[in-house]
Amino acid sequence: MSPNSLNLPPERRRRLELDLNDLYEDYTDTMSRLQKEAGNSVSGLVWDGESQELIKAEINRYADAASRLASDYYGHVRDLWAQYGGIDMPEYEPPSITADRAVWQMEGGFNNTDFMGLHYKDVIPDENGAVHNNAGRTIDDLWPTFADEEQALEYVQNLIQTVGRLTMQRAVANDPTKPRWARVPRGAKTCAFCLMLASRGFAYLSEDTAGRQMQYHTDCDCDIVPSWGSSKLKGYDPDKYREMYQAAKAAAGDDGDWRDTLAQLRRIYHDEVNDGVTAQPTIRWSGKSIPISASELSRLSDYSVRMPGDRFSNDEKIAALMDWTGDSYKSINGYLFGGRNPSKDVIHQVECIDEAISDHITRERFTVDRQMRLSTFHVNDMESLFDLNTGRTFEHIGYMATSIKEGGIDVDGEDRIATRILVPPGSAGVYVEPITQHPGEYEILLPRGRALRFEGLGASDGRPIVYLRLL
The whole model's pTM is what? Predict the structure, then answer.
């Protein structure tokens, strides 16, 4: 019998599962306490104004403890399977993961920088303190500077979790028994992305310790749990997750990709995932302005967000958004609206902006205003707007620069009309006021290639206004 496909008698498997549940509960409880303790300790050092060297030493100490904890848990699970399976498992070398390795993982190495192509071993000093890369980069260049205690607390707690996952990942990859493993979310709810990956159950193999299944977003609380046979883990229901995922995939349609499936997951099961959104058809709207909440505005302007699958650094995306608020919108629009032979810079900016917008999913409904060309609605004059039928949709090829100011931003030209757009939960948009080159416009940038549904006409300050719904 293969050591990674043990099939135990029902009663023996029941007793094994009880022991495995106890082990996992002890592990997650201890890891959670360690995360909190590490975060509080390091944030306290930051508050006291201690040196970065002392802060880093404290982080290293807690990272070592987290790696030992994860390695011990892996070994205990392995021993239980050997005991109940009645087999002897070969020796293996327990892994040890450092804080440096976790920082490399969290920061994405030097990808999307001038030094991309460097590997982790290239930036680790040897016994003489020298690094072996032409750029002279070291792992210290990736470490953040801890100047804010709240930022330190959050970063360190994420780092401890990352150390635990990397330790489990390394153990699975190096174990000669080649155990299967599952991505197990903690708590009653998880996000749509993690649910998708958790739906596979204990189906991942050691060679799956790379790729999307090993991507983790900021604040992700998923664990890697190994298994050497058929068993169940209390609180982890991959069959339910799989049914939810398949329903969402069907709703996304044959042309939908995995991102479309996740969008449907958030809508269909909005009460069962922690990033769920209210389904769009339930929203009724009179055309009145719906102000965006302060918390939603804060979320849409959090440029530190990184989502699984992101290709570009946060700095690249911020730079592209800043350029957009300057003059680059002209060349970008020229490209999006049919221009030929765009420069590499323009294509790069568009890709960065696309990713920045898709990183920010709306959770609440709100309205934004914008001055739009009459040609958007396939009319030449104001009077023709009254002939439009409610429910008619209009494609918008480019990005939509909107404002949370009622009436939008005045734009020169007689062929424009004020519009108010209802942005439903589950849409995407990024608030660029904190980084704009033109403060006071309060711009929310909406994605390109979206449709707008005509909801009717009204008046604002004595001027006509078109009511639209973002689809």
Answer: 0.65
